[in-house]
Write a structure and sequence with these properties.
The protein has about 90 residues and is α+β, with helices and mostly antiparallel strands. It has one domain. Strands 4-1-3-2-5 form a five-stranded antiparallel β-sheet, with helices on one face. The termini are close together.
């Protein structure tokens, strides 16, 4: 399982909607795989929302519109505390 992260401010609603739409398209394109999910972890203190994309190993997703639009950084899997599932099927999360 590979994890990627990026942040969006709470005021950037257009990009927030686009992140879900583009991830959903990528998710559907790959046949709704178990373990492919988009998560959000809000931070009320800073107004930044951390988003985490969970992608099963072996899927070629880095050329997708989702990866092109957002500056994603590969990361280790986050703690599940405070995460909310936006799109996809949880699986293989820590």
């Amino acid at each position: 399982m590979s994890w990627y992260t990026f942040s969006l401010s709470k005021d950037d609603l257009a990009r927030y909607d686009a992140s879900q739409d583009l991830f959903t398209t990528m998710y559907l394109t790959h046949g709704l795989p178990q373990g492919m999910a988009l998560w959000i972890k809000p931070n009320c203190d800073t107004g930044e929302n951390m988003l985490f994309a969970q992608v099963p190993d072996g899927l070629n997703v880095k050329d997708s519109a989702f990866f092109r639009m957002f500056s994603l950084t590969q990361c280790s899997g986050p703690s599940m505390a405070g995460l909310s599932l936006l799109v996809g099927k949880a699986g293989g999360a820590r």
